[in-house]
């Protein structure tokens, strides 16, 4: 596969918080275009307690979840960067310096050579990248994905100063949505910014036989299936989808709402589902590996994203790449994905009544699957990576 703007003979260092999904995919697509990629993944050994204790909140922070070595290219070396810390604001503010020290130690220990640093998330990976840029005098690119752009710098003056330092030290900033760009523009930042959305893997997310996927997942063949995929966190709004299901079954009973994901609100969702008597209508499927998600996408009739806030929401694109329409909240990111009612419908966040109404409309509508697939095509990682490579070349990399 030929990509524009190749940067052969370049060694890339990537500092990130996970090597899975939207952080792994562009790395793997970029890898054949460079000489080597060294990926430093921040992990918290505290999360490994989940192996011995039943703590759903820790599942998505474990090394097994955060590092997916499936199909890793030969020239990509993935190194866990273990840092013990507690999930407190105080510990998190100190994490940047510790993250930098750990990555620097690994680089020196292994004699790692790199011509460019690319960090995913401004904190703490971005801070580590900024410090390494100053020490090694190589170009530094940071991608601001979500909370690290729209939340952290606006918490207090100390956070603002930390994030502004990272953004101003970078040679180029990438962010995934116009709503994130608007947040950056509220800060005192002079570094060039380019909006490049996240993408999807076209070798995973494509139309498959729905009945076969349902059979493989042991899902009913005779029901309309509503699907949402995301971490079980308050900001993802699953509780409002549960409330919406209570309203939907007043109109039609032949539905099953499947919630895929792991996280801190699982127990609360289980209680909510029981209290509303919705056990026959909602399935908490748990967290699933990324390469299994396309089966769930293809098995459903409708994808729903009830988030209160999203920077972009690539799961919507992944669903569309399987030919599925989307109902999503106006959460800051989905408005940039569901840009036409040809592809889906938008609802108000935290409004179960509006959500239920639009889901019912969507279930009854005849959607143009080919139009949805054609729209999704622009978000393949192959297309997105071309824009990332252009930024690398603009910094003199590969010339």
From TrEMBL:
<protein>
    <submittedName>
        <fullName>Glycosyltransferase involved in cell wall bisynthesis</fullName>
    </submittedName>
</protein>
<dbReference type="InterPro" id="IPR001296">
    <property type="entry name" value="Glyco_trans_1"/>
</dbReference>
<feature type="domain" description="Glycosyltransferase subfamily 4-like N-terminal">
    <location>
        <begin position="77"/>
        <end position="200"/>
    </location>
</feature>
<feature type="domain" description="Glycosyl transferase family 1">
    <location>
        <begin position="213"/>
        <end position="377"/>
    </location>
</feature>
<dbReference type="Pfam" id="PF00534">
    <property type="entry name" value="Glycos_transf_1"/>
</dbReference>
<keyword id="KW-0808">Transferase</keyword>
<dbReference type="InterPro" id="IPR028098">
    <property type="entry name" value="Glyco_trans_4-like_N"/>
</dbReference>
<dbReference type="Pfam" id="PF13439">
    <property type="entry name" value="Glyco_transf_4"/>
</dbReference>
<dbReference type="InterPro" id="IPR050194">
    <property type="entry name" value="Glycosyltransferase_grp1"/>
</dbReference>
<dbReference type="GO" id="GO:0016757">
    <property type="term" value="F:glycosyltransferase activity"/>
</dbReference>
